[in-house]
């Protein structure tokens, strides 16, 4: 596969994965479950736990970064096709981890998490996705 084709495939997969990540935030119903007497306490704990999900992206991002570096080293050689495939695989796995904050926002929406917290968690996912874009230097 040529570098232009690989970049195009990566770009399309990136957008599809972002849609899959953010769609539940809009589709899940508001306040589907009753939390009882202290919903503020549960909401704060849930938001703190959901923010901790951001730290799960450290190892996948490190793997992605090394895959990009390895691809840059073999860009115009025979091993470039395998390096592109490896980059696609590593990035796909990393993007699943990047989806977790938005999915937590969707779950939080059903249990009554406040709108600013839902918004912050939902925006964290596109910001993480932005980290996983394909560098222009690989064209």
UniProtKB/TrEMBL annotation:
The keyword Membrane applies. The chain crosses the membrane at residues 12-29, 41-58, 94-111, 117-133. Keywords: Membrane, Transmembrane, Transmembrane helix. It comes from the Bacteria. This is MFS transporter. It comes from Denitrificimonas caeni.
């Amino acid at each position: 596969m040529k570098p232009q084709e690989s970049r195009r495939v990566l770009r399309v997969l990136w957008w599809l994965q972002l849609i899959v990540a953010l769609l539940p935030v809009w589709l899940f119903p508001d306040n589907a479950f009753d939390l009882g007497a202290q919903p503020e306490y549960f909401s704060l704990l849930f938001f703190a736990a959901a923010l901790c999900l951001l730290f799960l992206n450290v190892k996948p991002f490190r793997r992605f970064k090394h895959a990009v570096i390895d691809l840059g080293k073999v860009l115009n050689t025979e091993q470039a096709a395998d390096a592109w495939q490896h980059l696609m695989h590593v990035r796909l796995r990393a993007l699943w981890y990047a989806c977790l904050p938005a999915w937590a926002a969707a779950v939080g929406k059903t249990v009554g998490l406040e709108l600013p917290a839902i918004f912050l968690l939902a925006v964290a996912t596109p910001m993480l996705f932005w980290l996983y874009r394909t560098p222009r230097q690989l064209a």
